[in-house]
From TrEMBL:
It comes from Cohnella ginsengisoli. Residues 318-370 form the HAMP domain. One of its GO terms (cellular component) is plasma membrane. The keyword Membrane applies. It is found in: Cell membrane. This is Sensor histidine kinase. PROSITE patterns: HAMP. Pfam families: dCache_1, HAMP, HATPase_c, His_kinase. It is a multi-pass membrane protein.
């Protein structure tokens, strides 16, 4: 970034300074061109207005005229006329060359149709019909003696085979100012090359000058490459405005990156030229030579700085950053639950203290989580043992007493059913699995309800409505039975009407939901609030006995809620809806998983 900013800054400064310098140079060149054309005009003015010059032209014209009144021999007259014409032309040539050596030819198209041509180089005059049919001829006549210039390559029909600067003007009689003919003069303009060479001494080969004439045609190119071509070919995007007084643009010129400056020669137009524009093309490599050296130094300094920074990074920063990255990676593993992660302890700086502290912290957290997990296992086992002990002595005694009565009454079939139901209760209670199928849980529930119905006779009726599709799903054992027991022991206590218990289940949002409804006495707001805040989960509360019966009360609902939350997670458990005298509805939510095998113990970490 430092190198780029430095290069662009120097580049802009150089371009601006060179542009200012070039504007001054092009103004000076423009003045030189103006003086050169003005000098040629002065010569032309002197030659066509001086009496001696006009007479010389007239003598040259008259020398070739044959006499119509004499009777001399035609061949003699012709020879005499040619000789005299030759002498007059030599005299005129001497005068012309002494006055202005840059002139190459003079052609006079007399009004009476005669043509006189003086040539100092091999040059053919313009045919009269070609001259008079040219679009520039009306402009010449309109100016009535003022010169009109045609630059090389502007019109090859007028500039001749040598492609010279050509001046055309009307020749006037100096006494009457009436047109006598049209004068065409061609000039070599050697001063043009000398002028450009003078301003190109330092940038020889790297700077070139062009003059763009009528229609955007390149009249002159110091390099001789684009003469006769349209300037638009070198500027296809039209980025240069040839009519502006001065403009500089960095662009591609003839495939080379260059700085192009244009200067419209407005002052020279009043001397008879067309809308000429001076163009200077400078190779950008020539201008940016010093900048390239500076840029190389900047690049070398930058590379040195980067090398030092790299060494510093390798020696100091990289080690620290690598350690921080490893610690962050270890923290993410711990966050995902991998407490076996440790950070390697290397070196003898501050990172060693940080690594040891992190490892010690993770190790301590792992120990604490192990303790919590063990405590949760013990708590769950204790809860399961307490629930399995729900077959209270009084319940077992009353069940056996009922069986004895049936045996005395010789009701063998009923005795068999009662013993079978009691056996089902014992079998489910003492099983080692934490989860059983819903079908097994409901079989356990039916056995319990049938025994209770025999004990309490017409106290209640029950209905179990569970879809067959849910029978194969798993459930934590001894989940539904404590909820129903809560309805029998508390909901129907002291009622004078027939109680009713309904157990139903459904699949809702990929969760299995059980509803245990009764029409008992309901639950007071105080007890509902107590259940919502803490429930009945402590061992003292679970073993609290009724002073009248000695039976344990308050078991079940709070205990089942905590067991479900610990076993399945915070999204599962119980919801109670009740009011005094309105009955109770208990909603039990469990995940919809099939099978009745052992589940992994969770809750200490995940719960």
């Amino acid at each position: 970034m430092l190198g780029t900013i430095s290069y662009l800054t120097f580049q802009h400064i150089t371009e601006q300074k060179y542009s200012d310098q070039m504007e001054l140079s092009m103004n000076a060149i423009g003045r030189n061109l103006n003086n050169m054309i003005k000098e040629a005009n002065y010569f032309s003015d002197f030659w066509v207005t001086t009496e001696d010059s006009v007479e010389s032209v007239e003598q040259a014209l008259g020398a070739g005229v044959q006499s119509t009144g004499g009777k001399q021999d035609k061949s003699k007259e012709t020879e005499s006329g040619d000789y005299e014409e030759l002498l007059e032309k030599q005299k005129l040539t001497g005068r012309v060359l002494l006055t202005y050596p840059g002139i190459k030819s003079v052609t006079l198209y007399h009004i009476d149709g005669k043509v006189v041509n003086l040539r100092f180089v091999v040059d053919e005059p313009i045919p009269r019909d070609v001259l008079e049919s040219n679009p520039i001829y009306p402009e010449v006549l309109k100016k009535n003696g003022a010169p009109v210039w045609i630059g090389p390559n502007e019109d090859a029909r007028l500039t001749g085979a040598n492609n010279l600067f050509t001046q055309i003007r009307v020749l006037l009689d100096i006494d009457t100012l009436q047109p006598k003919g049209v004068l065409v003069m061609r000039f070599g303009m050697t001063e043009l090359a000398r002028t450009f060479n003078f301003y190109n001494t330092e940038g020889d080969g790297d700077r070139r000058y062009l003059i763009v004439g009528r229609g955007g045609v390149v009249v002159y190119d110091s390099a001789g490459k684009n003469e006769g071509r349209s300037f638009a070919e070198t500027d296809p995007d039209g980025r240069l405005d040839l009519s502006r007084n001065f403009q500089t643009q960095k662009m591609k010129f003839d495939g080379e990156k260059s700085l192009v400056s244009v200067h419209n020669l407005g002052d020279i137009k009043r001397l008879g030229t067309g809308d000429w524009t001076l163009v200077t093309v400078t190779d950008w490599g020539y201008l940016s030579g010093d900048l390239a050296s500076i840029l190389r130094y900047v690049v070398m300094i930058t590379i040195g700085c980067l090398a030092c920074a790299l060494v510093f990074n390798l020696m100091f920063v990289r080690r620290t950053i690598s350690f921080i990255v490893s610690v962050v990676g270890a923290m993410r593993k711990v966050e995902r639950g991998d407490l076996t992660t440790r950070v390697p302890v290397t070196g003898n700086d501050e990172t060693v203290i940080l690594a040891k502290g992190f490892n010690s912290l993770v190790e301590r957290v792992s120990e604490l989580l192990s303790d919590v997990t063990m405590e949760q296992r013990r708590k769950r086992k204790a809860e399961m043992m307490l629930l399995q002990a729900q077959i209270k002595p009084h319940f077992l005694f009353n069940a056996l007493e009922s069986i004895n009565i049936l045996a005395v009454q010789n009701e063998g079939r009923k005795v068999s059913k009662m013993v079978q139901r009691l056996g089902n209760i014992f079998r489910i209670s003492i099983t080692q699995k934490e989860e059983i199928t819903i079908e097994q849980e409901l079989e356990h529930l039916r056995s319990y309800l049938e025994i209770q119905k025999f004990r309490f006779e017409e106290l209640f009726e029950y209905t179990i409505e569970v879809p067959p599709a849910l029978m194969g799903h798993s459930i934590l054992k001894l989940t539904i039975q404590p909820l129903v027991e809560n309805s029998i022991q508390h909901g129907f206590e002291g009622i004078d009407y027939s109680g009713k218990i309904t157990v139903s289940a459904a699949l809702e949002d990929e969760k299995i939901v059980f509803y245990v409804e009764d029409n008992g006495i309901g639950i007071s707001d105080e007890r509902l609030a107590s259940f919502a805040s803490s429930g009945v989960t402590t061992l003292e509360q679970l073993y609290e006995e009724s002073p009248e019966t000695g039976e344990r009360r308050g078991m079940g609902v709070g205990n089942v809620a905590d067991r479900l939350r610990i076993h399945y997670g915070a999204n599962y458990g119980l919801m109670l809806c009740s009011a005094p005298g309105q009955g109770t509805i208990i909603k039990c939510v469990i995940p919809s998983e099939t099978g009745g095998g052992e589940r992994e113990i969770k809750g200490a970490v995940g719960g």
